[in-house]
Amino acid sequence: MTSEIPRKGLLMLLVALGLTKGGMVKASRDHLVNCTCESPHCKKPTCQGAWCTVVLVREQGGHPQVYRGCGNMNQELCLGRPTEFVNHHCCYRSFCNHNVSLVLEATQTPSEEPDVDAQLPLILGPVLALLVLVALGALGLWRVRRRQEKQRGLHSDLGESSLILKASEQGDSMLGDLLDSDCTTGSGSGLPFLVQRTVARQVALVECVGKGRYGEVWRGSWHGFIASDMTSRNSSTQLWLITHFHEHGSLYDFLQRQPLEPQLALRLAVSAACGLAHLHVEIFGTQGKPAIAHRDLKSRNVLVKSDLQCCIADLGLAVMHSQGSDYLDIGNNPRVGTKRYMAPEVLDEQIRTDCFESYKWTDVWAFGLVLWEIARRTIINGIVEDYRPPFYDMVPNDPSFEDMKKVVCTDQQTPTIPNRLAADPVLSGLAQMMRECWYPNPSARLTALRIKKTLQKLSHHPEKPKVTL
Question: Which of 287, 469, 257 is closest to 384 using CA atoms?
Answer without folding.
Answer: 257
